[in-house]
Structure formats: C-alpha cells, structure tokens
Amino acid sequence: MSVQSAPFPKIGLVRGWILGCLAALLAAIAFHGALFELVRRWTTQEEYGHGFLIPLVAAWLLWTRRGALLASIGRPAWTGALLILLALIMHVVGALSAIFILSQLAFIVALLGITLAVGGFSLLRAAFVPIIFLIFAIPLPYFIDANLSLQLQLISSQLGVFFIRLFQVPVYLDGNMIDLGSYKLQVVDACSGLRYLFPLLSLSFLAAYLFDAPIWQRALVLLSSIPITIAMNGLRIGMVGVTMDRWGPRMADGALHFFEGWIIFIASALLLTLEVYLLGHLSGRHFSEVFRVPANAARSLPAETRETIGRMPLYVALLLVCATVLTASLISNRSEIVPERSRFVTFPATIGAWHGHASLLEPQVENSLAMEDYVLSDYSKADGKIVNLYVAYYASQRTGESPHSPLVCIPGGGWSIAKLERASFDAERPLNRAIIERNGSKQLVYYWYEERGRSIASEYWSKWYLLSDAITKNRSDGALVRLITAISPGELERDADNRLLLFTQDLLPRLGGYLPSEGVSNTPQSGARPGIL
User: Does the structure show a pLDDT above 80 at 414?
Assistant: First the structure.
C-alpha cells in the first residue's frame, strides 16, 4: 500500500512557487561569479558557443511540461535542504580553489535541492531532465579540454589519412602532420572536432530524452554522437587532404573553410536524425510518432484527502540559499596569505655559463594571462644554441588567475604537438616533455608547475594540491616553468635534451627566492584582482 502525498491547496501552492522562485533567484546571485565565467567561456571559445542556447532549451522543456509540473507538486522533502547544503560546500571549495566547474555544478545541485524543497520527489521527477540538461552548458576545465583536444587531433589525423588513402593518394602521417609529398597538412587544435562534439552531445541528449523508445535505443542515440562527430571530422580532414593533392593548397584552404562549422555540424545532425528514423522504423512506427515530451504527471488525489503540507523544508532551504549568498560574499573578501618573494625584475641575466637577453610579452597577451610577475628570456652559451625561459608567477589563483597550460598555448601559437610524454629531471622533479612542430621546424619543450614548494607535472595533481592548500594553508600561489629550445636540422633530439637538462641544472638553484616554497614568511592580502582561468 502506497501513500500519495497531497498537493498544495491553491494559496499554499502559489506561496510555494513564489518562495521557490525567490530561492532560485538568490542561488543565481550566490553563484554569479561562476555563472559569469560560463558566459565568458561561451563567448571566447567556439566549441562552447552553443551554451547560450542550453538555458533557453531547458526553459522550453519546463514550459512544455508546465501541466505535469503543477500536477506533480507533492510533500516538500528534507533531502532538498541537504542538497543545498552540499551545493554550499561545493561552492566554498570551488571558490577557494578557483575550480569554477565545482561552483557551476553546485548551482545545478542547488536547483535540484530547491525543486525537492518546493514539491518533493514527485516534482523532481517531472523537472529532473530539464535541470540536468544545464550540465551541457558547463565547459570542461582548460587542462582537461586541452588534453581531450590533443587526443582528438591524433584520432582525426589517423581517420583523415584513412580517407585520403581511399582515393589512392600517397600520404604519410607523422603525429598530427599529414605529409602529401608536395604539400603538408597540419591538424591543429581547431581541427580536433570539439566544436562539433559538444553541441552534438547536447543535441543527442535532447533527442534521446524526446525519443519514445526503449532505453537501449535512447542510450544508443546519446552515445552515437561521439563516433559520428569523430568520423565526420576525420572525413572533413580527408576531403581537405584530397582537395590539396588534386588542386593545391589554395583550393584546399577554400575547402577547409567550407567544411568547417555549421556544414559539418548539420551533416552530423542529419546522421543522428537518420539513426533515430531507422530505430523508429525498427519499432514499426513513423518518424513523426517517435518524438514526444514525457508527461509523467502526478495523479491527483480525491478532494477529501487534501491537506495543508508543511513548508518547513522549503523555509530551511531558503535560509540555506541565503547562507550561500553570505558565504560567497565573505569568501570573495577573505584575506589570503601571499608569501614574500623577490621579483623577476632582479632575475640574473647570467646563469652559470648561460647569458640571457630578456624580452616582454605583448601587452594584450600579458593582460589576458593576468599573472602577478614573469620572466621571459633567451639564454645561450658560446655555441649560440638558445634556450628560451618563461616563468609565470601567480600570487593568488583564488579568483581564476592560473598558469595557462602549454597544451593550450602551444597550439594557439600555430604549433602542433607531435609527441607528449612524462619525464623527470630527478626523483623529486617530474616534468612534461613535448616535441612541437610548425612549417618543418621542430622544438623541444619542458614544462612543470611550482606549487607552494612542490614540483608537479600533472595538471590534475596541480589542481588537487591547489584545492587542498587553499583550504588548509590559505595559500594559492603558484607558477609555470617552461623551457624551449630549437632542434636544428641534422641535430638529434637527445642533443636538445642534453641542452635543456644542463640549463635546468643551472636554473633550479636560482629560482628559490622567486618561487616561494612551503616554509616562507607570509603576508596577508585582501583579495586578488579579477582575471581568467
């Protein structure tokens, strides 16, 4: 025997909706920093430009289900208050560590909690998918985005070469450089396919939700967007390669622009539509009959069973949202410990037998990186072989300023990453080793992160230690150290490795006063200037 929760009387229902909308508005205020970061990423990164549409689609889904939502109002659940408390904790951790995705996910958790506090689990069942759909508006962290882009570049290069060979065109693949003999095609960051993958994933989720079919067919529609996108991007690269072989680079450049953007996305969406059509046909139904907005309306109870429902969970949830607003304000004004250090203006021009020539970043680049201090210098010995040193220091990473991963910056400079591996200078200092290429030139890159006395190679571990140190030590300072040297024609990679290893050996003792370790004197700092992650 099951007990059906009674719906609100009319006055109580209106009051519940008003309080719920107020709680949602306050949540938006509490999470405004993370939400503004969302909009910035949508604006600056093409692969996330579809994010502007996600809230509109979610609102449309809720509007189409308004009857079901009204009929699904049940007894407010205390679980809603617990979810809002969880969202508060996630937001605090995200704000302290500048890991925006935690705060952005916390906003969605808070919306789920508010829904539970307004109408219980029956209302959550009716509103769950439209709210969860907002996840597709959240960009991946930069370091995950860069690693995913690199892997997709390599896969797309292999698929592109496969399609080129189908046309009997001789081709050689070296990393993500497609060599056609007379011409070379470089598969750069923009060719990874992410700009199609994320929008198509959102579309396939929506299609799976509206698809009136068995669960396995819905799952197939959702997951198939990944191979469809990768295959279509590989086909695009292959078509550009064939065009380049037949008619030269000028025609290939025109084909590249033609097959970019909406053309590939529309073709991918048509393949997804064809898949839904075939699955519907398998079930013996016409294409127009397989889409619907799920109703899931709650069953109304007899009038005599209706009673006023206690709104205490909703009041507690509202108080917790107000606490989140207050906590967010306190965190933004929290004084952070910033260690004393020497500034790079005094960094030595001579390191052992190496003599340096300092230079400056362009003002717009320096502003976008939003770092506290940096050094950029070319060092060389008598043989003339140059090692470029770049160290970017951030006194605070709490509000989003953070070392930009070379996995993002290198492709942004037009270089392709032909090889990336983990290496080490010694047992305590791991580093990332990369071979990069552009227009036939090769360079060797070492880079690692200096985080409060730790040398870290992994971006993932770097974020973990940032999270823990921000909470336990009230510190979030850190730096990126990057070394680059050219691999001259006829020079072996091991020669370039030896050059960077010798320079690193001379460099490390000099960095101590410029990159604070764990045991240093500290000074409080009241907030950090806004920047970007």
Answer: no
pLDDT, tens digit, 9 for 90 and up, residues 111-144: 999 999 988 898 999 999 999 999 999 998 876 7
416-426 vs 386-394, strand pairing mode = unpaired
Answer yes or no: pTM beyond 0.85: no
Burial class (CB in 10 A: 0-12, 13-18, 19+), 173: middle
Contact call for residues 477 and 515 (beta carbons, < 8 A): no
- Token pair in block for residue 515: 């990159």
φ/ψ (deg, to 5) at 248: 95, 170
- Residue 168 region by backbone torsions, left for phi larger than 0, else alpha for psi between -120 and 50, else beta: left
Residues constituting the chain: 533
* Rg of the chain over all Cα atoms, to the nearest angstrom: 28
522: tokens are: 């500290």
Which residue matches tokens 């007899």?
Answer: 302
First to last CA, the chain: 54
What's the token pair of residue 340? 């004393």
**How far, in Å, CA of 373 to CA of 514, rounded?**
10
Task: Tell me the DSSP string of 59-112.
Answer: HHHHHHTHHHHHHT-----HHHHHHHHHHHHHHHHHHHHT-HHHHHHHHHHHHH
Can you tell me the distance from the alpha carbon of 327 to that of 331, in angstroms, rounded to the nearest whole number? Answer: 6
d(CA 516, CA 465): 15
Q: Which amino acid is at 398?
A: R
CA separation (Å) from 48 to 71, 106, 228?
A: 35, 19, 18
The string of DSSP letters for 23-36 reads HHHHHHHHTHHHHH
d(CA 465, CA 471): 10
**Contact between residue 193 and residue 272 where contact means Cβ atoms under 8 Å apart:** no
CA atoms within 13 A on the CB side of 45: 28
Residue listed under structure tokens 């390669």: 241
* pLDDT (average), residues 232-252: 76
Cβ proximity of 414 and 176 under 8 Å: no
